[in-house]
Amino acid sequence: MEYRSNRDASPRVSLSHAIATGTAPDGGLYLPTAVPRADVAALNLETDRVRFSEAVLRPYFTGDKLEVCLRRACEAAFSLSQPLRFLEQSTAMLELYHGPTCAFKDFGARFLAQCVGFQRETCWPMPHYDIFVATSGDTGGAVAAAFHSLPGVRVVVLFPSGRVSAPQRAHLSCWPNNVLPIAVDGSFDDCQCIVRELLSRSSIEQRTCANSINIGRLLPQIAYTAWAAVRYQRLTGHAPGFIVPTGNLGNALGAYMARTMGFPVREIVLATNANRYLADYFNDIAAAPTSVVHTLASAMDVAKPGNLARVTALMNRDELLACSEVVLAQDADIRAAMGAAFRQRGLAVCPHTATALHALGTRRTPHWVVVATAHPGKFPEVLRSVTGTAPELPVAVQRQLARARPCTPVAARADAVEAVLAAGQAA
Ligand SMILES: *Cc1c(COP(=O)(O)O)cnc(C)c1O
């Protein structure tokens, strides 16, 4: 399998190269040259999820050096549990928040860490290496958790100061010294711009990026959608639609790819918060350049989803509109959905998952899988203000969070961040 840039102005590369570089030289994002068809009937759900996921992802690794590392990457990612919990006969919730940082991003981060770790083991001498990550809340913690034990690696986490919840912030700063959390005085989009700028200034031997611009984080997200779709269909006889809380469109991209591969994903609903770029795009309203709107679902506060470029490179607009739509939730809708889930189902959900429940309430057809993206205990203030109570995070997680340290505050400029890095902090 080869990988191309969505801008088609760069040479095709191997998976190893795409993972090591993050972005293509033309500034585009890598995606596979073709989406393989899966032999769905032959995939055995009864074997464990590690083997299932390995079979789903194998075509993306064929012919690459990383093929021998696929098993261990799947073991790292899919040893996490991913319960498909039925809320009713024709609605299930796919809980993707049982990893070390309690959000779905643990899957992609752990998968990518194994790939990067393998690449580093096979080069000698092993250079010192910076892993950059811009985060709206959950990515940074997941990447820090997954990468901090790799030898010779420093994890640099940029996050918008004051825009992440207290547990999220603790998850960014509770790791050993080779994780450097930087509180940027700006938005998530500012953080992302700074990371791109810093990456363009240095060689790939020194730095890479673990945002969802890296294809190595996206691929595993195909596998859990595929698994949930096949399992739902075997249990109910129906192909489910998926409702995916959406920010940068990474998780949903996995769902589109699983559908293209032939897995029983009937349709895809993108649940967004008040950031309306996707809603406008789907309604063919010329998307005005807007700045980010801060909402209760803060990990989805993205002005312009970077992965839209990948989705539109995979399918044209008509194909996209034929299989999916956008449902936008204002903060009031998020609160209402959280309250209703608690009163009617005894279910505590995070504000991101609540956008999907809001979208579920607008559906007229049955058979849906609602994707639950974070543990409700990660957003205790919102939950308490809506329901009067908030669930605790798992004890092991609480113990880890107790190790949180202060973060370095920095102006929203690449030079300011570069200065912190040069000072060698947390090296
Ligand atoms: C990152 C995140 C999202 C958005 O996912 P994308 O892949 O960026 O669309 C939704 N919910 C939570 C809890 C997240 O951390």
List the helices and strands and how they pair.
Blueprint: E1 3-5, H1 15-21, E2 30-32, H2 49-61, H3 70-78, E3 84-88, E4 91-95, H4 105-121, E5 129-134, H5 138-147, E6 153-160, H6 166-173, E7 179-185, H7 188-200, E8 207-209, H8 215-236, E9 241-245, H9 250-261, E10 268-272, H10 277-282, H11 308-314, H12 317-323, E11 324-328, H13 331-345, H14 351-361, E12 368-372, H15 380-387, H16 395-401, E13 408-411, H17 414-422
Helix pairs in contact: 2-3, 2-8, 3-4, 4-5, 4-8, 5-6, 8-9, 13-14, 13-15
The chain binds pyridoxal-5'-phosphate (PLP).
Pyridoxal-5'-phosphate is lined by residues 103, 105, 137-138, 212, 245-252, 299-300, 352, 373-374.
Explain what this protein looks like in three dimensions.
The radius of gyration is 20 Å and the shape is globular. The chain contains 17 helices and 13 strands. The strands form 3 sheets. The protein has a 6-stranded mixed β-sheet with strand order 3-4-12-9-10-11. It has a 5-stranded parallel β-sheet with strand order 8-5-6-7-13, with helices on both faces. A two-stranded antiparallel sheet has the order 1-2. It has helices at 15-21, 49-61, 70-78, 105-121, 138-147, 166-173, 188-200, 215-236, 250-261, 277-282, 308-314, 317-323, 331-345, 351-361, 380-387, 395-401, 414-422, and strands spanning 3-5, 30-32, 84-88, 91-95, 129-134, 153-160, 179-185, 207-209, 241-245, 268-272, 324-328, 368-372, 408-411. The chain has a domain at 81-103 and 216-395: 3-Layer(aba) Sandwich (Rossmann fold). By secondary structure, the protein is an alpha/beta fold. Pyridoxal-5'-phosphate is lined by residues 103, 105, 137-138, 212, 245-252, 299-300, 352, 373-374. Pyridoxal-5'-phosphate binds next to helix 9.
